[in-house]
């Protein structure tokens, strides 16, 4: 039995699947990840990307922050790929309970998934730091310099920057989903960014599937390890 057949059998035998994914899920949609050869960490900027998308840099250099953010974090023309679409299909079929994602691109929701836990927020949600008025991503993209609300406040993306904490309530919900899952599919994530990477420790089942192009620290724990693109792996699944 090959990898595709084993994955299909696991999905057929499961009824409470949870998916946990990272940047690799969206690379097939043309969105660069942070650590691949063409990812953000290979770009040439005056500061390293992890500095430019940190809370302190946002506070101290907001104009430079937004220049980088518009150029590298807003990919509004990207569309869901086979992985996003298959996960939404599995949810509609009653097989998948939740998608837990480290991505901020909103592509899971765009594909039709309804139970999406966005651990790092979303570029599609933005708010005035003074009056809390909401703005969409297009407003940020089309603004110049530091985006301002009509009240004069800075409009901040609802994304978790370096030095900021994840939402504790969202983390608790993610843990609950994983603890109750009878199958956990992990894909497109290096599993090195904590606390999100520690979520798989809460899974106690016998169907842990890892799908990734590169090795991860958790490979030895997988019941099924698939090396390659997640869109290709999930795209072959029959629902």
From TrEMBL:
GO cellular component, one term: cytoplasm
Binding site for Zn(2+): 128, 131, 149, 151
Enzyme Commission number: 2.3.1.286
GO MF annotation list: histone deacetylase activity, NAD-dependent; NAD+ binding; zinc ion binding
EC class (word): transferase
Residues the record lists as binding NAD(+): 23, 27, 34-35, 102, 104-105, 120, 189-190, 212, 230
Reaction(s) catalysed by this chain's protein: N(6)-acetyl-L-lysyl-[protein] + NAD(+) + H2O = 2''-O-acetyl-ADP-D-ribose + nicotinamide + L-lysyl-[protein]
Cofactor remark from the record: Binds 1 zinc ion per subunit.
Active site: 120 (proton acceptor)
Cofactor requirements of the protein: Zn(2+)
Claim: Zinc is one of the keywords in the record: yes
Highest taxon in the source lineage: Bacteria
HAMAP family to which the protein is assigned, alphabetical: Sirtuin_ClassU
Protein name according to UniProt: NAD-dependent protein deacetylase
Organism, scientific name: Harryflintia acetispora
